[in-house]
Amino acid sequence: ATGGGLATNLLRGAFLRVASDISGGTPLESVKCRVTTTLKGPLQATRDIYSEGGLQAFWTGTPSRTIEGALLGAMFLVGSAATKNQVLAMGGSKDLAALAGGLVGGLVQAIVMTPAGMVFTSLNYNKGKPGYEDDNFITVANRIVKEKGVMGMFIGGGPMAIRQASNWASRGLFTEIARTNFKMSKYGLIGEIGSGVIGGVGSCWNTPIETVRVIMQRDVSSGLAPKTAKEYMNSIYEEQGIPGLFRGVTPRAIQAIWQTCFMVVVPNILGL
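Above: the chain's sequence. Below: its structure in token form.
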């Protein structure tokens, strides 16, 4: 199935991603970001965010994330659907099509996600600190550009591209394996959602890449000079061991399931 034209898929992708963010993705991102940058557990991070600004604090940065989400969803679904159709047309398997679709969709997203992630990390990490009370998307972006230049917004782009490509390739592949190889799709909607759960949790193997990205962008947003990804990984491992590299994996796994159900399961059901 071709699954509709370019404009239709752009709109579908934008809608699905914004819906996933507003309904739960943004609060989970807030908790994950706080856990990764402060060494607190998910429950303590949740309590801290709530005490700083009540329930609405979990949706910090929602206006900018809605714009980001619409762009991400549109780019992902168009890139993913076109790649999957191309692989299938060339005689590739459904598993290979899902892997390639996720890979291309994820890589395209990284162009938007790197600067957006930089701002979101800064807003989350500096919230409530003296001197950062009036921070918003524009003020944070201006500060980083003034300190580091335009390319400062793209610091962490390497880990972000690797994370996004491996995220969505894993989510697409593991979901497809569950629905076709394990034949979970024959159980209807429950089977499709179950496949998405497997795809979401399975994609969390790359959490160390995300940990490095968050810490790197936290340092930039605090005015510190960023280190290389390898230096961050080594220092985190030396200080906290393997668990340190997987900080925030619990909220991240829930977020991954949530996003996979919206961005992989729904398109699968629609035949995209």
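The chain has a mean pLDDT of 92.
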